[in-house]
Design brief:
mainly alpha, 9 helices, 0% strand, globular
């Protein structure tokens, strides 16, 4: 009984992962892939072996296939995202010419470009799940705020070597876990973004900055801005959820 339950649990999660494939691919191959995974699990169980390594390998291989298929099925989107990331890269590139302490090398700009591209692709893949403008706007705000938080926090951690700053990554962890549990549905994403805003507010109020007054004031403004953006994204997802019910 326990073996069958674990197999059913693994298959349930695998079927959820398959939903990230483009619809034509999923409709053609999804059921067969799920059945093949189920057969592999049962064969492994019959030999008295665990499922963790098999699931890890299959899930990883499937995730690579999902990324490849999504890129293959939207070449125009990839080109637009690539050009948009290049345009976004012009901002730090131009700013570095006027800010005296800006010492990025080629590798720094390359990392920034990859980050911009990944965020853009994330928006392109997620936002097309629902046609409502509020869903698309909510995705954009959430990704922009999450990217800003991650980037600024990495800069501060590198500059100050203060390990307590890693607490800010808990906000992003809430977002990733919540989005996964919500399966990117608007109602679940609304709750996730409200939770992110609450965690961000709690950290900003409870974590002492230890910074000079001017810097502490700027940090407080930045924290408040992120709380507002996360909450605004949550309200947009709530609007999208209500729209989908009608």
């Amino acid at each position: 009984m326990g073996s069958n339950r674990s197999i059913e649990h693994c298959r349930w999660w695998y079927e959820k992962l398959l939903r990230l494939y483009p619809r034509p691919f999923r409709e053609r191959f999804g059921e067969g892939m799920a059945q093949s995974f189920d057969d592999l699990c049962r064969e492994r169980r019959s030999k008295g072996r665990g499922l963790f390594r098999l699931a890890l390998w299959v899930f990883g291989e499937t995730l690579v296939g999902i990324i490849r298929e999504n890129i293959t099925h939207m070449p125009k989107t990839v080109l637009r995202v690539a050009l948009g990331a290049l345009a976004a890269l012009m901002v730090p590139l131009i700013a570095s010419q006027f800010v005296p302490d800006w010492h990025w090398g080629v590798s720094g700009f390359a990392v920034a470009y990859v980050a911009f591209f990944l965020v853009g692709m994330g928006y392109a893949v997620i936002s097309r799940r629902m046609g409502a403008w509020s869903y698309k706007a909510g995705v954009g705000l959430a990704l922009a705020a999450g990217f800003g938080l991650a980037w600024s926090n990495m800069v501060h951690v590198t500059g100050t070597e203060n390990p307590t700053l890693f607490l800010y990554f808990s906000v992003l962890a809430v977002g990733v876990i919540g989005a996964g549990l919500a399966r990117l549905n608007a109602g679940g994403l609304a709750r996730t973004l409200f939770a992110m805003a609450a965690v961000m507010l709690a950290i900003s109020m409870l974590l002492p900055s230890g910074a000079p007054p001017d810097m502490a004031r700027r940090m407080a403004i930045g924290h408040a801005g992120l709380v507002v953006v996360f909450a605004a994204s949550g309200f947009l997802f709530r609007h999208a959820s209500a729209h989908s019910v009608k």
